[in-house]
Amino acid sequence: MNKPYCFITNDVETTSLVYHQLRDETGKLVLSQGMPRLLDLFDKLNIKTTFFYTGYIAERFPDVVKIAHQRGHEVASHGYSHLVKNAFDVMPNEKIKEHLFKSKDILEQIIGEEVISFRAPALRIKKNFTPFLLDAGFKIDSSVASQRMDMIMSFGSKHKLNWLLSPRSPYFASEKNIFSKGNSELLEIPVTSILVPYIGTVMRISPLLLKSLRPFIILEKNLFNRHVNFLSHPNEFIDEVQDESVRIQKRSKNPISYVLADVLRYRLKIKNLGEKAMPLYRNELMFLQQNGYDFHRMKDVYGNFKLKHASKRSS
Q1: Does 90 fall in a domain?
Q2: Residue 200 sits in a domain of what CATH number?
Q3: Long-range CB contact pairs, 206-211, < 8 A, 24+
């Protein structure tokens, strides 16, 4: 049996966890602090990863894309904008197409190579999203978090309820429902979740909670040869100075959404930022290495999954 894949994925944007808003100043720190720290760590551990960039940060700080590409990591799209109003589950169809094509073109112009992988900001997509991605030239999506249960604390929870029944292993999505298996050419690689998401935010908020997921991850590896997809953000690894001007931005008119997705989420997400997060992250990567996973960029495995899918269809 082949070793299961491990995908280390990074969402690169200008979101400030300290100021709870999008800030160009945060983008500068991502370039000068977050990215170098991560890239140096990946080099030391000999790991190649996938970086998902918003078109916005790529336009303003193209070097944030170049430095990862030059060190052998995959450049992928994180849409054009991380504004809540521009989420892919609420934008009209024409704007969805515009943002997909625009973000892809910006990144391809910077690196001179095709970009085939995508992840939606805040993992916000709707059922009929598969054709939009295929029309834009994407072959891989990673916007589903199967069996993740904290969606009520984030925006787009109505569509995220579809995660509850989504396959746990990578699958080719249905044309009509990206949350289900089908026969399209779009490979979905879900973010690993076991009720609790296997992500950098949980790692920082509660290292013990993240460690509690490890036995279940290893059990799935041993029983099903299941792959792992760990998500984090370079903005988690920057030292951003907080001042008295910090106010929690109200991004929703719904009072329940404001309390859960803004106030409570903010209080949790500012724990163990910057240098404090680095040893936690290193320990998690070493745990995965020591347990026999093969680390890969997403684009490198598409062909293998396609061959297996074609074989199943013909048998």
Answers
A1: yes
A2: 3.20.20.370
A3: 207/272, 207/280, 210/284
Q: Can you tell me the distance from the alpha carbon of 309 to that of 151, in angstroms, rounded to the nearest whole number?
A: 30
**pLDDT at position 26, please?**
97
Assess whether pLDDT exceeds 60 at residue 165. yes
Please give the Cα distance from 144 to 30 (Å, whole number). 25
Q: How many helical (H) and strand (E) elements, i.e. helices and strands, does the chain have?
A: 13, 13
Contact 182, 172 (CB under 8 A): yes
* Residue 24 in this model has a pLDDT that exceeds 60: yes
CA distance 154 to 261: 5
In the chain, the number of structural domains is 1
Coil, strand or helix at 57: helix
pLDDT in tens, 227-259: 999 999 999 999 997 765 555 555 556 555 555
- Domain range for 217 is 5-309
